[in-house]
Amino acid sequence: MSKDLLSFFLAWMSAPGRVGAIASSGPALAELITREITASSGPIIELGPGTGAFTYKLLQRGVPQEDLTLIEYGCDFVKLLQMRFPGARVLWMDASRLANSRLFEGAPVGAVISGLPLLNMSTRNIVSIVGGAFSYMRSGAAFYQFTYSMRCPVPRPVLDRLGLKATLLDRALLNVPPASVYRLTRRAPCKFVNV
Ligand SMILES: C[S@@+](CC[C@H](N)C(=O)[O-])C[C@H]1O[C@@H](n2cnc3c(N)ncnc32)[C@H](O)[C@@H]1O
Q: Does 195 reside within a domain?
């Protein structure tokens, strides 16, 4: 995978803020972020797949390529992904345009896996990305996001505004650098009792 190291490093050199890491994620993080995915989780959206570190793991979990929509903004990564995953839908697209893109009819998506560097993004972009992703997600579906920070990269006011809760799934200490994965899900509706 030394070719991936080089692709990543060159991409990071040309756009450090957008790429957000100098190397692709390792197997421990790929294992963790896809831990709750099964063959029946599809359709699945992957945001910021880069060279496909998580995508390979999704395939190992039994997800068919045809169930994957890969959304990537780096054009070199897009070409690589199209070669590596010819059965998947690979879109050269800014994830903050998700809501306006009519990617699916209705809301069939069972999971979203995100490698986006949210810590480098404005609150407005985070709202567009997370809100846009949830507009395609079926009831009970989850959005998985990794971060190198000790805190959830989706700020609390954004979670409140979108009616979501974030749960720490676990930490991948063997990743370089160590990373955490958060699961975002819709909050249960409040039950009002008339007395
Ligand atoms: C930290 S890298 C993660 C790559 C891969 N998921 C991994 O873990 O190895 C972030 C990726 O998100 C992509 N990206 C950043 N901003 C994006 C945006 N607005 N829309 C789509 N992709 C974006 C970058 O090009 C890069 O591939």
A: no
For the cut 60, the answer to whether the pLDDT of residue 1 exceeds it is no
Ligand 1 pocket mutation pick from 4, 14, 19, 84 by most atoms within 8 angstroms of CB: 19
* C-alpha–C-alpha distance, residues 97 and 63, integer Å: 25
Most ligand 1 atoms within 8 A of CB, residue of 25, 72, 82 to mutate: 72
DSSP 72: E
Could you give the number of structural domains in the chain? Answer: 1
For 131-147, the pLDDT digits (tens) are: 999 999 999 999 999 99
Q: Distance between CA 85 and CA 70 in Å, rounded?
A: 9
Q: Compute, in angstroms, the gap from residue 49 CA to the centroid of ligand 1.
A: 6
> At 150, which CATH number?
3.40.50.150
